[in-house]
Amino acid sequence: MHATLGALGRAWWLALIGLTVVYPLGGFLLRGRITESVDPTAVRNSLMIATAAAVVALPGGFLLAWLSERRRWGGRGLAEITCWMVFLLPSYLLTLGWLTLVDRPQTVHTDAARFFFGLGGIVALLALKGVPFAYFAARATLRAMGAEWDEVVSVFGLSRVRAAGIAARALLPAAAASAVVVFVESLQEFGIPATLGARIHLHVMPYDIYARLATTPADFSGAAGLSMQLAVIAVAAALVHLWLHLRYTTALVGARHRGATPGVPARWESAVGWLCAAVILGLGFVIPLAGLCLQALGPIAGKAVPWASMADSLLYALLGSGLTLAIVLAILQRRPRSSPLAAMGVEVFSLASMAVPGVVLGAAYVFAFNRGPIVLYGTPLLLVVAYASAIVPLLIRLLKAPLEQIHGSLGEAAAIHVPDPGRRLLDITLPLRAGPLLWGAFMAFATIVFELPISELLAPPGRTPLAVSIVNLMQGMNDTAAARLGLAGLLVVGGLGAGLMSVASRRFAGSLHTGVGA
Amino acid sequence: MSAGLEISGLGVALRGRIVLRGVDLAVEPGEVMVVAGRSGAGKSTLLRAVAGLVRADSGCIRIHDTVVADAARGIHCLPRRRGVGMVFQDYALWPHLSARDNVALVVPGPLAESRRRARELLAQFGLRNLMDRRPGALSGGQQQRVAVARALIGGPRILLMDEPFSSLDEEAAGHLRVELKLLARERGTAVLIASHDPRDVWRLADRVAVLEDGRITQAGTPEELYRLPATPLAARLSGAEGWLSGRVRINGAGTELCIGAVMIPGTGVGVGGGRRATALIRPQAVSIAPNGSGIEAEWVTHTFENGWYRCYWRLRSVDGMLFGLHADLPDRDSRLLLRREHVFIYRNDGEES
Fold it and tell me: Which domains occur in chain A, in start order?
């Protein structure tokens, strides 16, 4: 009986992954061959700008992570806020903000503008969006290095050169892993190529895939071939990241690991850190936001602001985030009871799926659900399912650690001592998980509200999502309406996030602690 | 009177590894039984099987004559229906709730009434002024009291405690041992404690079960365990240490361990003559021999321990050491007498020589 239930449990989520990921992606990618003759310019450009973005983003992100984890640095809060703000600001709004400031009669003929309207501008924007990824990835590894690293150096009186050499051997793999993350994210980025890239006619892989499907007749084979190439590069890079992370994090974490006790930073270290955080916050959030505000105050040149798309996107986000959270919880709930093989399966699945760009997933959905046994193309249902499929891997990785931190004995204590199932659920199970779940739900919600590539490809007729409306307005040179819509979206989502976090911090403070120790 | 807890032939396998093998155990109401053993012996799994957190693969568990688990008949009562209370090793207090609500939530019925009862019980446990604090704001000893109160408020027939004192300082642990013992007797609760700490055996247990590699190798009162420890582990729990290895000789005087020309008198436990064996010796066995009798030895180092000199002795021409407790520091070169009743000789298989 138990074996049957277990098999059924496995079957449903394998069926779900099969239907929402394997079936569409498999069918679409197999249609195009990796050797499909496509314009090599897009591949070359994509590789070049993604590499350049990784190289530019890494020093800033890594420096902030180093100071935050390994030094008692006063700017830790600023670094954290900076990275989250830049991370959460949609790339097409970042671009719009900068476009507003650069594309003015006073500035448009300057060297800075010429730099912006070229590869340099694309790389700079991608690098700004890449800084948070470098920061988050590096912090995870640096946190894993126990206090012993600094203590050993001081106890044995190692010279600065030797200490730096030892640290470098440990840190270079972490830096490489962070760079790979930025590379993958830049490779997949759609918003910047769709806005600034489109204005300067830059061919990059994600936007070219969309363009091949947006023309009439649609070039499915070409899009599939390009998608296959993009997916292979991204998945390969993601696997390199996984290998670096597993290989070196394991080596860094000792059995008797203690949390790092950060040392006091040198004055110059602190100053460089503050400057770096301020520059990234300015370039990546404050200045473009100011640009958006400035633009929003101007007169509307074309058609009015399509506010209905805001309501549509909020509804899609509500449904999509609920569905995403339900699937993630079901998968993570199963993990502890699963075999190590299944755990590794979830790990590889989530990483590989994350490496599949949204535009490829969207294109695969167009191909799979436009004909054949399941016809859903053009329906809100397909759009919501696609959103969920795209975000589930991200959320699995985001929620895995916080949910696993909740000690299993807390649930066992409830199973033994609390006889009322309702009370067990409402007073123990949900509050213990409330922090990560609220955070996960908000992340999913915010991501869906501003999601672009899937929305572009799968938007139902007459129900245009927010991101598509903004980009359409930008492409129609109606930047004021785009800025107003974008700012309104930011305000709604930001307000919702602030409200949720405020409730969570008051009601569920400390819900992630295991209760051991004072 | 029926046993509070009765376990017969209990076997449990986890992830294909057999953790418990045919465990038989009974705990009377009001009795404290300590299950002692090394890490990985299966102590926690035994408690978790009684609580219903893991399923029995063989055997049967009865609580007050009610079968709560029977592998042969496919019976597995849910944990909350077994009438057990459990104190987890890390206490497992719900971190988002106050001490009072951690205890009150366990009581079925209206929350106001549950909270009143929780307040009363926590006050009895000396936590009157701390009950609105969350676990993170309590010390280890206070958390332990909350965990015990939570386990007891439902009036469980069986109280299970997994290494309950392992994270407490000695003074707090000492107080709680006494309180627990009195509490079990007053309420008639059968208490089963998993511990690797010999202090729990000697200061808390009415009876002791030694668990080794998933099997109970000895069960009895602490006196029985002290008088004749059945295994080297039981001997170590009773304070013996073993460094001397040799061959067994049995003669009219009893059992002796021969190491070259040196004869160590002892109590043989399951050893035959001529076998390789190891002697485990309590410090009480060692005294200074008068007038040139005894075994030649020199102490290599000593410490002063609570009024006694603990001397580490090396026997002449023998590879091995033993230690003794002496009221005065003996001469460095002395002759030692060993009292047979504190020396236990075990076969070498299954025990390091």
Answer: 298-518 (1.10.3720.10)
Q: Which chain B residue shows the shortest CA-CA distance from A1?
A: B74
Cite the residue boundaries of each domain of chain B with CATH code 3.40.50.300: 5-231
Report long-range pairs for A168-176 (Cβ below 8 Å, ≥24 apart): A170/A145, A170/A248, A170/A252, A171/A142, A173/A141, A173/A244, A173/A247, A173/A248, A174/A137, A174/A138, A174/A141, A174/A142, A174/A244, A174/A248, A175/A58, A175/A62, A175/A138, A176/A244
What is the residue-wise DSSP string for B43-55?
Answer: HHHHHHHHHTSS-
Q: Is the pLDDT of residue A509 over 70?
A: no
Q: Do A513 and B94 touch (CB under 8 A)?
A: no
Of B51, B96, B136, the CB nearest to A416: B51
Pairwise CB contact (< 8 Å): A518 & B137: yes
d(CA A465, CA A73): 42
Question: Considering only CB atoms, which chain B residues are within 8 Å of A418?
Answer: 80, 105-106
Contact check, Cβ <8 Å, B80/A427: no
pLDDT of residue A153: 58
Mean pLDDT, range A440-453, rounded to an integer: 93
Handedness of CA B250, B256, B257, B260 (dihedral sign): negative
Contact in structure between A248 and A170 (CB atoms under 8 Å):
yes
Provide, rounded to the nearest whole percent, the portion of chain B with pLDDT above 90.
Answer: 58
* Residues from chain B contacting residue A409 (CB–CB below 8 Å): 88-90, 92
Q: CB-based contacts of B19: which residues, under 8 Å, 6+ apart?
A: B12, B13, B42, B45, B214
Q: Determine the Cα–Cα distance for residues A380 and A85; give it in Å rounded to an integer.
A: 30
User: What pTM does this model have?
Assistant: 0.71
Distance from CA of B85 to the nearest CA of A (A): 7
Distance CA A224, CA B311 (A): 81
Q: With residue B343 as reference, give the H or E element that holds it.
A: strand B343-347
> From B158, which residue of chain A is nearest by alpha-carbon distance?
A416
A362 touches A430 (CB < 8 A): no
Write the pLDDT tens digit of every residue in A459-483: 999 899 999 999 999 888 888 999 9
Phi, psi (rounded to 5 degrees) for B249: -130, 135
C-alpha–C-alpha distance, residues A66 and A423, integer Å: 44
Which residues in chain A are contacts of B140 at CB distance < 8 A?
Answer: 517-518
Report the alpha-carbon distance of residue A53 to residue A286 in Å, rounded.
20
What is the pLDDT averaged over residues A154-172? 69
Cross-strand bridge partners of residue B295: B336
Tell me the pLDDT tens digit for each residue of A253-295.
433 344 445 677 889 989 999 999 999 999 999 999 999 999 9
Contact between B177 and B209 (Cβ < 8 Å): no
Report the residue of chain A nearest B104, measured CA to CA. Answer: A418
Distance of residue A515 Cα from the nearest chain B Cα, in angstroms: 5
Pairs of CB atoms within 8 A across A/B? 101
What is the CATH architecture assignment of B5-231?
3-Layer(aba) Sandwich (3.40)
Comparing alpha-carbon positions, the chain B residue that sits nearest to A427 is B105
User: Quick one: what percent of chain B has pLDDT higher than 70?
Assistant: 98
- Chain A positions touching B136 (Cβ under 8 A) are 510, 513, 515, 517-518
In the prediction, which pLDDT does B124 show?
A: 84
ipTM entry: 0.70
- Between chains, do A515 and B90 touch, taking CB under 8 Å as contact? yes
The answer to whether A327 and A505 are in contact (CB under 8 A) is: no
Cβ neighbours of A517 in B, within 8 Å: 136, 140, 167
**DSSP H or E stretch at residue A328:** helix A308-334
Contact B86 A417 (CB under 8 A): yes
Which one of B96, B157, B159 makes the best mutation probe of the A interface by having the most chain A beta carbons within 10 Å?
Answer: B96
Phi, psi of B57, deg, nearest 5: -90, -25
Strands B343-347 and B262-269: parallel
